[in-house]
Every structure is written in C-alpha cells, then in structure tokens.
C-alpha cells in the first residue's frame, strides 16, 4: 500500500534531482572546459582530484612538479568541486597581463573583488613614493643592519653549517621596519621575535587557508590548530601595524622624523600625509592592510632571495669569486659610505640576484581569476571565476634559459635577455607588478656585498639538491638554507 511517507520520499527525491540538475546545468561551462582540456583523470565532479592532495604540505611541491611535467602547456585539474586551469601558454599569459578584468585572489581579504579594485587604485598613489630618491635616502639603514647581520654571523666563522635565513629574515624585518614603518624593531638584537613567528605563520598557512576556502570548508578549518595559530598571528600583526600608524600620526603632529636614525621619512608617514589630505580617499583599515602587505612582501621576499643567493654562491664558487671581485672593485675593501652610483655598477651581482629569482620565484604559482569569461582560442573559453594558475617556477626552466636547473647568472647577460620572448618576470608584470623592484635591488646588493666581502661561503651540492617544500613560500624543506662560512 502506498502511504503518505512514500509520497514525501518521492517528492524529496524529485526536488533533490531537480536541484542537482540545476546545479550541474549552472556549471555546464566548467564541465565543457574540463572536457576540452587534458588533465588528471577525475572520479566525480564533487570530489575531483582531491584524493591526490592528501599529503603533507612539504610534498605539495613535488606533486605539482610531477603533474606539470606530465601534461601540456594548458591543462586542468579538479580541486574538489573547483575547476582549476594551469597554463604556461604565452598566448594565454598575454591575455592575463593585458586584461584589466581579473581579480586577485588573496585569502587575507574578505571582499576580494572590491579590495582588489581599491588596492589597484591606491597602488597608483603608493608606488611613486618608493622611488630612486627613497632608495638613496635609505642606503644608510640597509648598511647599518647589514653590518649588524655580518657581525652576528661571526660566530659561525670556520664552524659547522647553519641556516643563513635565520639571520637574514630578522635583518630584513629590522630594515623594512624602519624604512616602511618608521619603527626600530630590533629582531637582530633578540627583540620582537614574535613578529618573526607571526609573519612565518601567515606565509606558511596561506595555501592551506586558500584550499579550505575553495572547498567551502572554512567552518571546519576554524576548528583546527592551524586556524588558531594563524588567527593569533594575524591579531599580533594587526596590533603591531595599528601601533605603527598611531605613532606616525603622533609624530606628524609633533613634526618629528621616524625612529630611523638616518632621518629619511618612512613610507608610513608618506601615506599618512596623503590620507590626511584626502580623508575620504583611503579608509583606515585599508591603510593598515596595505602597510602590512607591503611590509610582509618586502621583508619575506628579500630574505628569501638573499638566502638563495648566499647558498648558490656556496654551491657555485666561481660565481662567488666573480661577484666578490666586482664588489671590491666598485665598493672598496671596507664598504664605507656606499653610493647609489657605485651600487648601480654591480652588474654581475644584479645578474646573480635575478638568476636566484628565476630559479625560485617569490611564489611558484601565481593565481588569477578573471571577472568575465575569456576566449583561450581553439574554441576553449575560460568561464569567469575559474582560477588560472601560472606555473612561474616551471616556466622559468624553459629552454630559453641555459642550464635551467643550475645557478647560471649569465642567463641575465644583456645579450641573452634581449632575445628571450618574455621579459624578466622576477617582480611580476601587469596590474599586480611589484612596487619594490628598485628598492629591493639596492637593499639586496648592500646586504649580500657586506656578507661576501667579509666571508667565503661554502655549501654542499648543486641547486637541484635543494628540495622545495611549500610552493607559496618556497624555502628548501630538507636542510633549510644550509651553508658554512670560511675566512
Ligand atoms: C627580491 C625582492 C622582491 C621580489 C623578487 C619581489 C617579487 C614580487 C612579485 C613577483 C610580485 C607579483 C606577485 C603577483 O603577480 O601576484 C610582487 C608583488 C608585490 N611586491 Fe614584491 N618583490 C620583492 C621585494 C619587494 C619589496 C622590497 C617591496 C616593498 C617595498 C615589495 C612589495 C610588493 C607588493 C606590495 C606586491 C603586491 C603588488 C600587488 O598585488 O599589486 N616587494 N613582488
């Protein structure tokens, strides 16, 4: 006998089937795209290739290494219900860098689309503030902290190997703390060590957080230890940066300089001046978020690249000798009173820095999401909101580079750069290009020159022996930036 419950069950089944059909129909363009592109075999759309991602985060890089090698220039994979397209096709990349219609995916922001639009607008105002004069004004600050770092390294002289990043990260936090935030941080002298922890935590967990958001599992993530850690780190950083801004207002009222001994005006005061004159143009929380973003980018990337250059100098001594000779010829033996003109002449060192950024880009992937559908050619359309991953790390190993898996600074000789189709993307391109290109080059040249002119670096192996762990904060996962210092 057919009861009332049977009708209810049938009605529920029909409603569920209809909802599922509507859901699948609304995503039809994703399925068509998935069908048109090669990629790993998927089971069911909701699970996708998620099974392949159950691994320790130290192994994520190796996983991508395998799939990028296996598939052609443009391929897809399903991260749970999220379709992701990976592309290193120059025609696709051209569309990305030229199109204004994309959204920057950043897990720090709640309303990503609006935040991104406003950041791009404000970036036009902030970028000119970090100019050549700003770099020249701050040479003494780089020099002073580089001197402290070189002195601290003394205890490792003719001793066993150690991780140089543990010295360089505090060094750059101190430098950019003064230059950007107008605050003496003192990490190198053992103060504010929780700042190092907070920054590393945020950088380390960035990928995991993005993954949980994509899978709509944020509520689940909130129950994990990771969330607690990253929340503590964010609160700490937010408190720190608010304090920096408050002090800047006070300072400006009293008309005094930042804590920077050189008397150069820190970036925070320059932005504060703009905000004061255009009250409605930038919200207080935007000011806070931008300054934090710039401080994190500046110190973490500079420390990463400086550490890679040092380790590579140890692994490729012939490059170290050439750089040291150039440094001595242009900056003298004692590196006193450094001048911008002399730093500018360090062309070989500049090539070494660019080569390190080629081997290890700031982030192994760049992630972009268009806000409208884009024709990728060959009857393939990328629907809006479908993330596209640009595999920077792997693209930087194309045949247009000589010895692609080695540290080979000659890749950046002018005659070799000239014929390469894509320019130097070490600092990004398009609307999200780095705002610290020039400043970072000046800073890195000073710090590396100080270390190389005082010590001879030794490191085991060659570049490919370093195993990279986390693709969005690419440090060597096995022994860190291990090297020895000799007289
Ligand atoms: C060797 C040092 C550096 C390297 C290799 C580097 C590289 C990069 C790259 C590749 C991007 C683009 C990321 C993307 O396309 O999504 C970027 C963005 C950025 N960089 Fe740098 N950077 C360095 C130093 C600095 C410094 C010193 C500052 C600040 C003074 C800085 C501030 C920024 C900011 C704020 C962004 C975000 C731009 C945006 O989203 O519009 N960077 N950097």
TrEMBL record:
SUPFAM superfamilies: Cytochrome P450. It holds the Pfam family p450. Its main location: endoplasmic reticulum. It is found in: Endoplasmic reticulum membrane; Microsome membrane. Its cofactor is heme. It is a peripheral membrane protein. InterPro entries: Cyt_P450 (IPR001128), Cyt_P450_E_grp-IV (IPR002403), Cyt_P450_sf (IPR036396), Cytochrome_P450_Monoox (IPR050196). The chain crosses the membrane at residues 6-25, 32-55. The keyword Chloroplast does not apply. Gene3D superfamilies: Cytochrome P450. Keywords: Endoplasmic reticulum, Heme, Iron, Membrane, Metal-binding, Microsome, Monooxygenase, Oxidoreductase, Transmembrane, Transmembrane helix. Signal peptide: none annotated. Belongs to the cytochrome P450 family. May be involved in the metabolism of insect hormones and in the breakdown of synthetic insecticides. PANTHER family: CYTOCHROME P450 4C3-RELATED, CYTOCHROME P450 FAMILY 4. This is Cytochrome P450 4C1-like. The lineage of its organism: Eukaryota, Metazoa, Ecdysozoa, Arthropoda, Hexapoda.
């Amino acid at each position: 006998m057919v009861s009332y419950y049977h009708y209810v069950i049938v009605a529920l089944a029909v409603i569920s089937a209809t909802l599922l059909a509507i859901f699948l129909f609304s995503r039809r363009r994703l399925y068509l795209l998935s069908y048109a592109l090669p990629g790993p075999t998927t089971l069911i759309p909701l699970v996708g290739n998620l099974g392949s991602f159950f691994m320790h985060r130290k192994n994520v890089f190796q996983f991508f290494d395998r799939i990028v090698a296996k598939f052609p220039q443009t391929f897809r994979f399903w991260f749970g219900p999220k379709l992701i397209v990976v592309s290193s096709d120059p025609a696709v990349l051209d569309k990305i860098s030229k199109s204004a219609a994309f959204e920057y995916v950043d897990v720090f922001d709640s309303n990503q689309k609006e935040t991104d639009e406003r950041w791009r607008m404000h970036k036009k105002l902030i970028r000119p503030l970090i100019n050549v004069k700003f770099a020249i004004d701050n040479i003494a600050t780089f020099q002073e902290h580089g001197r402290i770092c070189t002195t601290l390294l003394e205890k490792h002289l003719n001793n066993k190997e150690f991780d140089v990043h543990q010295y360089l990260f505090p060094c750059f936090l101190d430098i950019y703390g003064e230059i950007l935030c107008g605050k003496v941080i003192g990490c190198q002298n053992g103060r504010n060590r929780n700042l190092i922890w907070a920054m590393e935590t945020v950088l380390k967990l960035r990928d995991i957080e993005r993954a949980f958001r994509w899978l709509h599992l944020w509520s689940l993530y909130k129950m994990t230890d990771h969330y607690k850690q990253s929340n503590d780190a964010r609160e700490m950083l937010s408190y720190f940066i608010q304090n920096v801004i408050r002090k800047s207002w006070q300072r400006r009222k009293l008309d005094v300089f930042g804590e920077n001994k050189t008397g150069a005006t820190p970036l925070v005061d320059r932005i504060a001046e703009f905000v004061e004159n255009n009250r409605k143009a930038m919200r207080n929380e935007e000011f806070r978020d931008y300054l934090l973003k710039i401080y994190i980018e500046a110190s973490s990337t500079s420390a990463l690249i400086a550490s890679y250059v040092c380790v590579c100098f140890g692994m490729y001594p012939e490059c170290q000798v050439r750089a040291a000779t150039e440094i001595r010829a242009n900056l003298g033996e004692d590196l006193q009173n450094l001048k911008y003109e002399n730093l500018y002449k360090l062309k070989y060192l500049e090539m070494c820095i660019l080569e390190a950024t080629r081997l290890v880009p700031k982030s192994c992937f760049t992630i972009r999401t268009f806000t409208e559908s884009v024709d990728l050619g060959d009857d393939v359309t990328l629907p809006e909101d479908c993330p596209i991953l640009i595999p920077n790390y792997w693209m930087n190993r194309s045949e247009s580079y000589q010895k692609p898996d080695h540290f080979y600074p000659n890749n950046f000789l002018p005659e070799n750069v000239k014929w390469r189709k894509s320019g130097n993307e070490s600092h990004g391109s398009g609307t999200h290009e780095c705002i610290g290109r020039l400043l970072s080059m000046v800073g890195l040249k000073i710090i590396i020159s100080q270390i190389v002119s005082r010590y001879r670096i030794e490191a085991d192996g060659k570049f490919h022996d370093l195993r990279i762990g986390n693709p969005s904060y690419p440090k060597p996962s096995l022994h860190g930036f291990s090297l020895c210092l000799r007289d």
